[in-house]
Amino acid sequence: MSSPAPRGRPRSFDRQAALAAATRLFWDRGYEATSISDLTQAMGIRPPSLYAAFGDKRALFEEVVAGYQATYAAFGTRAFEEEPTVRAGVARMLHEAAAEYTAPGRPHGCLIISAAANCATPEVHDALQAIRNANIERLRTLIAAAVARGEEPAQADPATLARFTGAVLQGMSQQARDGAGRAELEPVAAAAMLAWPAAGPPAGAAAVGR
C-alpha cells in the first residue's frame, strides 16, 4: 500500500535569491515600469509562487524597500553612529554615497529615490516620499541638537542644511544613473560641505589667554 502524497508543494526556490533579483529589477526600472511578468522572469518563479511567497507586487516592493534600507542604504546610519560630530557624519555620508551610488555590478543611484520616478501608484509614491522626508527630518533633528550643544554655530539653519543635504543626495543619485562615476561625484560631496557655516571655536575658548 503506497503512502499518501504529502499535502501542498514545498517551495522550490531560494526566497532570498528571488528577493535579491526583485530588488535589482525595481532598482533598475522603478516600481511602475516593472511588471509581474518581469519579476517572475527575473526571480525564476511562476506568478502563483510569487503571490504565495510575497503577496502582490506592492507587498513585494515594500519588502524590497525594507531590505534595501537595511543593507545598501545603511551607510548613512553608520556614518552618524560612528563619526564624532554631525558635520563629520554628513561629510562621510555624502562621500560614501558617491561610492555606493556608482558601485559596479548593480544598478546605480538610490532605489528610494529612483523607484518613485513616474510612479502612478499613489500609495507607493507617498510611501517613498515619506521615507525621504523622514530622513530629512531626522537630519534636521541631529543638526539642531548639534547647534544646541555648541557643536555647530548658532547661525546654522538646521532645516535648510538638512534639506540641502537631501537635495545633494538626490542629485548625486540621478547623476549616477546618468553615468557620472565616483571620481566625478566625490568632489560634489566635498563642495556640498562648503555650504555649511564655518564652525566657531568651542564654547569658552574666546576667554582663554585673556
TrEMBL record:
Keyword check for Electron transport: no
Keyword Membrane: no
DNA-binding region(s), chain positions: 35-54
Coiled-coil stretches: none
Cross-referenced PROSITE patterns: HTH_TETR_2
Record SUPFAM superfamilies: Homeodomain-like, Tetracyclin repressor-like, C-terminal domain
Name of this protein: TetR/AcrR family transcriptional regulator
Organism: Kitasatospora nipponensis
